[in-house]
Amino acid sequence: MPELPEVETIKLGLSQLLPGKKILKVWHDWEKSFPNADADVDRFLVGAEITRVRRRAKVLIIDLSSKYSLAIHLKMTGQLVYVGTQESLVTSPQSPGKTDDKRQQTADYALPAEERFGAGHPSDSLIGQLPDKSTRVIFDLQTVKGRTLHAQSRLFFNDQRKFGWIRLIPTSEVENLDFFKHVGPEPLSSNFTQAEFRNRLKRRANTNIKAALLDQTVLAGIGNIYADESLWNARIYPATLVKNISDNKLNTLFTAIINVLTLSIEKGGSTDRNYVNAEGQKGSYLSFANVFRRNGLPCPRCGEVILKMRVAGRGTHVCPKCQKLTQ
DNA sequence: CACTTGACCTGTCCGC
DNA sequence: TGCGGACAGGTCAAGT
After folding, report:
1. Which of A3, A181, A213, A322 could be bridged to A223 by S-S, CB 3.0 to 4.6 A?
2. pLDDT of residue A204
3. Given 3-state DSSP classes, what are the helix, strand and coil percentages for chain A, each rounded to the nearest 5?
4. Within 10 Å of residue A63's Cβ, how many Cβ atoms?
């Protein structure tokens, strides 16, 4: 679920919340969520200050003063939620242990959204009390300013299905992550052009356009939601082979992708089931979606009933009337 | 090499 | 109401 607009939304939120915070303590309960959480954590994570939050493709990168970085992939059900306490605490609360009751030990953080964020805050939240049983990693944070103990806060990495991961690596090696080595260009980058889009797509000439859009080595950041939405916007049938799509149509698709992603970022991303932003709130893009999760409903453009089918192994939403197989 | 399918997980929903 | 199975979808490994 978290695709480019969702990760971008989280990045924008965390950029306002994390820089200047110092990491006091790290807790994790699922090895695969944080595979290198051992000696490096003590040396390069605990005590380090967060300097910057950025994004590449669907990966969030948190840079630290130790010249190490946390690279975080949320995969399908990952969440990164920041929770501040009401006021500074005199003593550091304990991180929950594996065999202890997390909720009891973290009562100060386990506040309903309304209390955490104040009255009038959009309470359109999927997050109840944290940690919950999907919590895999907790970062205890502290504001760095002089010697006074300032307000403390926590960053929760929740991941129901445990597909997501966090890696602690030297900042200089972030771009050498296997994931980044072959990943395609950022679609919202100003130097990403129609010609490059077409050329990269044509490496997947014999596959269908939906599979090609989901291929992160072609283009970074597109997932199932925005593939379907972009193809609807460009009136392209998702099972069409790339080689059978005209350059004109591909140019239309290029523009559609940019428009769809840009609109979704404006709306705070898409919440289908799990996605929330850095403050635990849902995104509203799906209210503006034209086909995704709208099977059985009329196409907003022509009124035909939207179908759900299977393309590239994924649930795929299509208007059979205005998305044509032949271009 | 190009392309497709299965595995990784848990929670939810549907049919019997 | 319980239970098995399909489904959800990002990426990598394994298979064709």
Report:
1. A3
2. 92
3. 30, 25, 45
4. 20
pLDDT at A120: 38
List, in sequence order, every residue forming a beta bridge with A170; answer none if it has no partner.
Answer: A68
With CA atoms as reference, report the closest residue to A135 among A168, A169, A167, A95.
A95
Residue-level pLDDT at A33: 83
Q: Is A25 a catalytic residue?
A: no
Which of the residues in chain A have pLDDT under 70? 37, 85-125, 145-151, 326-327
Between CA A263 and CA A270, with CA A264 as vertex, the angle to 5 degrees is 155
Cβ of A214 near strand C (under 7 Å)? The reply is: yes
Q: Catalytic: A314?
A: yes
Helix and strand numbers (H, E) in chain A are 9, 10
Q: Does the pTM exceed 0.90? A: no
- A288 Cβ nearer than 7 Å to chain C strand: no
Q: Which residue approaches B10 most closely, CA to C1'? A: A161
Close Cβ partners of A138 (under 8 Å, ≥ 6 residues apart): A26, A27, A28, A95, A96, A131, A154, A155, A156, A157
Q: How far apart are CA A295 and CA A291, in angstroms?
A: 7
Closest protein CA to C1' of nucleotide C10, residue: A75
From the CA of A62, how many Å to the C1' of B10? 27
Nearest protein residue to nucleotide C7 (CA to C1' distance) is A315
| Predicted pLDDT of residue A85 | 64
Count of C-beta atoms within a 10 Å radius of residue A54: 14
